[in-house]
Design goal:
Number of helices: 6
Order of helices and strands: EHEEHEEEHEEEHHHE
CATH architecture of the largest domain: 2-Layer Sandwich
Strand content: 25-35%
CATH topology of the largest domain: Alpha-Beta Plaits
Family: Belongs to the tRNA pseudouridine synthase TruA family.
Subunit structure: Homodimer.
CATH superfamily of the largest domain: Pseudouridine synthase I, catalytic domain, C-terminal subdomain
Number of domains: 2
InterPro entries: PsdUridine_synth_cat_dom_sf, PsdUridine_synth_TruA, PsdUridine_synth_TruA_a/b_dom, PsdUridine_synth_TruA_C, TruA/RsuA/RluB/E/F_N
Helix content: 10-25%
Structural class: alpha+beta
Catalytic activity: uridine(38/39/40) in tRNA = pseudouridine(38/39/40) in tRNA
Enzyme class: isomerase
Length: about 260
């Protein structure tokens, strides 16, 4: 059995999220079906393991998964074969032969998310599946001051939706940025950290745009850490604007640059 590591992108609009669900079209179910068809539907079926879940409507620029395949196929041939069978809203960009102990989820050392927020006064029907919308004026400098409060290790209890399956709400954000894309009239946020919980990025963006519009104090994030109350963070911005941009593994993670021996990667 050869283990393969695949990097792929998808438009999340017509998916009910990443994780397999009964009677629903999910990223996991579509990819699993194609891989098993390539392997001539073996018994037991091939199982894929993703780096993590994305919710319904969330997109990925570089999701990662691994699986064990019963035939030895060159990595590039595997990529071409998968893409010839995948639907138009999914595309494999890279396939690598992985070590037997590589795990797409448990070996993750960091993730980077992107959020696009359209600033137009009217909702653009051609962007509705790919951006959130915030039609109120924002002060970018206020947002940047607030972003500094997000970096570092914190208890993000106030920024996690109910239903999160985690034992601790402590996470570390290494980098948080925002800029205005003048060409597309969008606020563009990026967050890079050691992990993110259910709806965390979407809740953080909701707080940040309120700070930028002056409806919250600039350093209100510090208060939210203390109160540990999801209700006080208020809004969750739409899933359509969220993109999984990159998944980092040890040896390629800027925050954990130590290179592992080849057999441990």
């Amino acid at each position: 059995m050869q283990r393969y590591k695949v990097t792929f992108m998808y438009d999340g609009t017509d998916f009910a999220g990443f994780q397999r669900q009964p009677h629903k079209r999910t990223v996991e179910s579509v990819l699993t079906k194609v891989i098993n068809k390539m392997a001539k539907n073996p018994t037991p079926a091939i199982v894929i393991y993703g780096s993590g879940r994305t919710d319904a409507g969330v997109h990925a620029l570089a999701q990662v998964a691994h699986f064990d395949f019963p035939f030895d196929i060159p990595a590039e041939n595997m990529r071409k074969g998968l893409n010839s069978m995948l639907p138009m809203d999914m595309e494999v960009t890279k396939v690598e032969l992985a070590a037997p102990d590589f795990h797409a989820r448990y070996n993750v050392s960091g993730k980077r998310y992107l959020y696009r927020m359209d600033m137009g006064e009217f909702r653009n029907p051609f962007k509705r599946n790919y951006t959130g919308q915030w039609k109120f004026p924002v002060d970018l400098e206020k947002i940047k001051l607030a972003l500094a409060d997000l970096t570092g290790e914190h208890d993000f209890t106030s920024f996690v939706a109910s239903g999160a399956q985690t034992r601790t709400f402590v996470r570390t954000i290494y980098e948080a940025t925002c800029h205005i894309d003048q060409a597309n009239n969008e606020l563009v946020f990026e967050f890079y950290g050691n992990g993110f919980m259910y709806n965390q990025v979407r809740i953080m963006v909701g707080v940040l745009v309120e700070i930028g519009s002056g409806t919250r104090p600039v350093h209100d994030i510090l208060r939210l850490y203390e109160v540990k109350d999801r209700k006080q963070a208020r809004r969750t911005v739409p899933a359509a604007g969220l993109y999984l941009k990159h998944v980092y593994y040890q040896g390629e993670d800027p925050a954990h640059p130590t290179k592992l021996p080849q057999h441990q990667r």
